[in-house]
Fold this protein.
Amino acid sequence: MARANGGEDSVGLLDDVGLLDDRLVAVHFRLADEEDIQRTAEADAAVAHCPSVFCYWNPDGETQWTPVPELRAAGVDIGVGIDDHYWHDSYSMFGEARQARLAANLKRSAGQFDSMELIRMLTIEGARALGMGDEIGSIEAGKRADIILLDIDKPKFTPRTNIPAQVVNNAVPADVETVIVDGDVVLRNGVPETMDSDDVRQRVNQAVERFEDETDWELHVGGSEPPTNIETVRDLPKRGPARLLTRLAIQSARDRFPF
């Protein structure tokens, strides 16, 4: 996409337009080399690592993985993130932490992250990546009271040894009993306090129905069937950035067939 927009590389393009600074949170950062890592560290930029979506779309085993260990070693703040929960079954931050570990071990070797490192990426390092490390990310005097409480009176949390590993390896969203945001309880005993969950679900279903009507996707309990390529091309002008897609297609052709 950077080349399609006149840049030699993504980091270079960001630098050219004045976005490579301490306000930048670069998502994925998958094809970064040593120079990219150094430039990112020098700019005090951060990275959001979203492992599940890449594992879902990974074209082959040789595709480069986000260089999280090298980024952290260079002093870049890394937060664990979710790219697209709807299509890729990625809605759990606990699950993202597990996926970050397993995928990194597969790409490199076992033992890339210990459990406490992953918890830090879920909390304080994620807060720093967002430029909010002085306000959230840890339980300290003067910070906002952002806390989750897990129900660990379950067989899977027995015995209670190595709690960081228990959280990263075993916890799921259903284990979250209470959520406190800036001192306000927003989830109590597993029940949302700040919204009507039935109304939210109804609005979601209405949005999906609208999506089906406007895109010709067929969604059902067993999966989904996208529109054909002919239908997609036919409706492309009314669906989004056709010009950008055309430029990307042209650049891809040039990369594949130099002339």
User: Anything to note?
Assistant: The domain at 1-139 is CATH 3.20.20.140 (TIM Barrel). The two ends are 20 Å apart (CA to CA). Strands lie at 25-27, 46-49, 78-80, 147-150, 176-181, 184-188, 191-192, 218-220, 223-225.
